[in-house]
Amino acid sequence: MTKIRTVLFDLDGTIADTAPDMAHALNALLQAEGKQTLAFEDIRPVVSHGASALIKLGLGVAPGEAEFDRLRERFLAVYADNLCRHTRPFDGIGPLLVSLHAAGIAWGIVTNKPAFLTEPLIASLDLKPAPVCIVSGDTTNNRKPHPEPMLHAAAAAGARPEQCLYVGDAERDIQAGKLAGMKTLVALFGYISRSETPDRWGADGMVNSPHEILEWLERHG
Predict the structure, then answer these.
(1) What is the CATH number of domain 19-81?
(2) Which helix (H) or strand (E) element contains residue 115?
(3) Stated pTM of the model
(4) DSSP letter at 9?
(5) Catalytic residue among 10, 12, 17, 169
(6) Could you confirm whether domain 6-17+87-220 is CATH 3.40.50.1000?
(7) Which of 1, 8, 67, 110 could form a disulfide with 103 if both were Cys (CB 3.0 to 4.6 A apart)?
(8) What is the pLDDT of residues 23-74, one digit of tens each?
């Protein structure tokens, strides 16, 4: 069907809808700190940017500032204990993975999420067929938008970078994929805020649903 041999995905906001459990962890932290909780609609667009961005959103504390490390540790502890209560694959991901397998295309994950969260989350989701590689935020020395984790994933999947497509919902995903020499797609169904301009990220395409990834491969792969 395509010259692409491997499709690599971001995790939060692309493969899995993790926002409900991430929002729960943030609001639990806010309650514990005596702060006002936030509406889910305000938290969702920030989830793909990770714990640091969520702590900045909820408590106004950035990395390097006093209390940040303590707050991050508390947030991650709450999240780790509630990792997959409401998290599910996005609608259409299951059939997409089956279709990729039928076409002889492998799939994998490249995320900035640390491995101690990524690995049990993927295990809980029990995606079939299983990914050929999982690259977490601490697997390599650098994280996205650096291309190192992308190149590591390609090698683990047994593919050259130009034989890979990377799908993600953040600008750093597209930057990392392009720097690695991969084709890239923006997952518009992910956690993209109204203020962001994904049409300016320089991706090879944008998709509104997982099914459209197959359609793109048929046309451009």
Answers:
(1) 1.10.150
(2) helix 115-125
(3) 0.95
(4) E
(5) 10
(6) yes
(7) 1
(8) 999 999 999 999 999 999 999 999 999 999 999 999 999 999 999 999 999 9
